[in-house]
From TrEMBL:
PROSITE patterns: ANNEXIN_1, ANNEXIN_2
Species annotation: Bombyx mori
GO MF terms held by the record: calcium ion binding; calcium-dependent phospholipid binding; phosphatidylserine binding
Domain-related comment: A pair of annexin repeats may form one binding site for calcium and phospholipid.
UniProt keyword ATP-binding, yes or no: no
Database matches in InterPro entries: Annexin (IPR001464), Annexin_repeat (IPR018502), Annexin_repeat_CS (IPR018252), Annexin_sf (IPR037104)
Similarity-based family: Belongs to the annexin family.
Entry keyword annotation includes Calcium: yes
Keywords: Annexin, Calcium, Calcium/phospholipid-binding, Repeat
Protein name: Annexin
GO cellular component: cytoplasm; nucleus; plasma membrane; vesicle membrane
Amino acid sequence: MAYQRAPTVVGVPNFNAVEDAAALRAAMKGFGTDEQAIIDILTTRSNMQRQAISQAFTREYGRDLIEDLKSELGGHFEDVIVALMTPPEEYLCQELHRCMEGMGTDEDTLVEILCTRTKPEIAAIVDTYERLYDRPLAEHMCSETSGDFRRLLTLIVVSGAKGARADEAPADPERARELAQELYDAGEAKWGTDEEVFNRILAHESFAQLRQIFEEYKNIAGRTVEQAIKAEIDGELKDALSAIVECVEDAAGWFARRLRRAVQGAGTDDRALVRILATRAEVDLDNVKLEYEKLFDKTLQSDISQGETSGDYKRALVALIGPA
């Protein structure tokens, strides 16, 4: 069953962009910066409201709000605030571009952004990427990845761009049975695995249809698709296909585990922490934090507070997560 997405940030009623712009200007003007005022305003407004504040700021003061914020803030706190001020698709495109530029490719980020989104979300990312970088996302990705992993990501991006499926369409049970059988025949029923079949079905079908396919697969194989993927496939492709399966069945659980990896171990993965909290706050962060507590018997707030984050950076993250 698809879960009801519950955000932690929904914007404020009786919103006034000009008043917020004035409050932000006051927080940055003169000697010192009132970081708490910036946190209080920007972590509670929706992204649409933040864009309106940005426009009002330019209109009233002839200045660029993001540039002013950058000049006043620093470190990871600045990263959070700039992420919040950027339209979500643009921010995700910047993160995709960053993870493919320079030496080596950050496959974890590619998987996190591309294997967890619905078709309409992917279509918006694809359009925005080409607008920002004057280069198709699929083309850039092909030059930075290889093998079955590259083929899967390319299929995701291309089928998203074509709007190959409407995510709102109801699942077709008959087709689900046929595709579940195809998956079984391509994996457990034969010697060696036909990754092409897994790629095609998992990249192309809607989340609703995949949910039904995975149910049918269990009936045919006596175990889950996820168990089959982990047994039959390895490397980056396994991680990518597993992410799709987990996000179809339990996106909150997948992001909770990703956050746990970001805050545990040697050093905090601040980029992942900022990216997930900033981009899921208006989507399903409330689900994610509940799932986090269920999985790890600790609240997300306490893990972030007791970890390596501190000061305004920590306060901004905790504000996005909302009360426990």
